[in-house]
Amino acid sequence: MKNPGxxxxxxxxxxxxxxxxxxxxxxxxxxxxxxxxxxxxxxDRTVGLGLAAxxxxxxxxxxxxxxxxxxxxxxxxxxxxxxxxxxxxILFIALAEGLAVLGFAIAMLLLQKI
Length: 114
Prior knowledge:
Order of helices and strands: HHH
Number of helices: 3
Radius of gyration: 21 Å
Distance between the termini: 47 Å
Largest sheet: none
Strand content: under 5%
Mean pLDDT: 80
Structural class: mainly alpha
CATH superfamily of the domain at 35-112: F1F0 ATP synthase subunit C
Shape: elongated
CATH topology of the domain at 35-112: F1FO ATP Synthase
CATH architecture of the domain at 35-112: Up-down Bundle
CATH class of the domain at 35-112: Mainly Alpha
Low-confidence stretches: none
Number of strands: 0
């Protein structure tokens, strides 16, 4: 029996890819006059940077939450048997949490370009 959660992720990934591809194709068609084109390109750049920042923090936060959940449960299981592994398990959880911090830093760098 297939995992029903995986099909939801695949559907969401396909939908996001389709939206990005159709959006970029629509932006590539051009707007017409030069003045209107310059205005649209500024708006498109702002929207694109905002979308990139949102994706950077959103995906990294989801990945960090997933990693901390998996590593945290394994660390608690290991701590129940060997309490001397506490420092090592905290280190692994901190490394997983670093994903969210890096995503936040990249989002802030992207927002500085707006």
